[in-house]
Design brief:
Helices cover about 50% and strands about 20% of the residues. It contains eleven helices and 16 strands. By secondary structure, the chain is of the alpha+beta class. It has two domains: about 200 residues, no CATH class; about 170 residues, no CATH class. α2 runs antiparallel to α10 and α9 runs antiparallel to α10. Belongs to the ABC-4 integral membrane protein family. GO terms for molecular function: transmembrane transporter activity.
Amino acid sequence: MKLKDQFRFVRQNMKKNRTRVFMTFLATAMGCAFLIVLASVAFGLQKSVVKKITEQRVVTQIDVHGKEEKGVDGFRPINDQDIKIFEDMQDVKAVTRRKMLQQPSTYTIGNYQESTESFVGNMPSEVKAGFELSKGRLPKEKDEIVVGYDFPLNLAPKDATSDIYDKQGQVKEEYRYKGNLLGEKIELEVRQFKDGQEIIKPFTFTVVGIAKKPTKEWLRDNSVFISDQALKDIEDFTGTSRGMINDPNRRGANSAGEFAQDSYDQVKIYANSVEAVKTISDGLKEKKYATYSIVNELKEVNLVFTIAKAGLIFIGTIAILIASIGIYNTMTMAVTERAPDIGIMKAIGANPKTIKRIFLLESSYIGLIGAFIGTVVSYGISYAVNFAIPLILKQAFGEKPPSDLSFSDIPISLPIICIVICYGVTIISGLRPAQRATRVDVLKAMRREV
């Protein structure tokens, strides 16, 4: 019997018992839909969490915090020699390094002021890493500075109260500095204690550039870039590294740590591609550098969700196993009812393997159609869940979840996994009835007895 004839025979027999076969389809489809929808929750939450993490970090960025060395307690700061090693590594796009003024920076212009962080940065490497200006130019003189995009937006009146700030912590538009900051003189107040008294010295700078607006809406850039020479002038005034304050009222103030001139407070490596991040990170770890990148965080997150997905798929498989009982019952009944047909096929010389294949084809047919129906239904349920749950949460708890939060996501791999599991289960379920069909006695079958 040709394979085409075997399929025709299977379809004809299935039509004779439509109700029973339909219920078997339904049970299989429900099992598959349960597996896919259940596992899709882990896939959806993983997608949302990973997206959130990658949005809050530069994907190709590697933070280097220090290097482990013998005889050094903890990690020593990164210096110029380390920077040279980083820049010589393969697939490194740029290496930014910053020195940070070690005291609160309060900048004043007229009746407006703002407290923020001040950095000394290597501007060529910053530009290479993606730093851009919205206005002006990069500094050339020691008294020229570049400010972050949000710096002008947060210059507040000196006598300001908390009422002038909005929910995001920014100064409301009616209270902001109205002038054109570019080209204006601005003063930085530097503090230090000498002979038990606080001394404040203003350092005057000219704003020559304003950074480009951050690509992420939630990110605020209020930082200020000063020159290395300006930091040295501040250090000459304070008598400390990075302008640290020796406050006699603070315990241990006179034992403030010293910073080497060629050391840096913040060092970031930017890779040419996401794929190169892991290679660079592994190379740095071999050289005893303390690093952090988004790859480390994603690895842990993905591991947790992989375990969750495996567990949910296992639970979903139980539903398919329950449905397999129906397939086994259907196939057993089919063997009993078709005993005369089996007897006739044997009488005319049908091979037992052919008879066995016919019943395995029928069980496979039921499993695959049920899996297909279950997959279609699961996509509908997934869409409905993503649409309805935010509305339910808003009504029940009064809080609107993030617009990009995905409760259910069905990648193409999930239906494939489901179909493979379902197919395997249905083959196992139909195997014993198929073997029983090959052992049907011809004479008894012709008398319609099994």
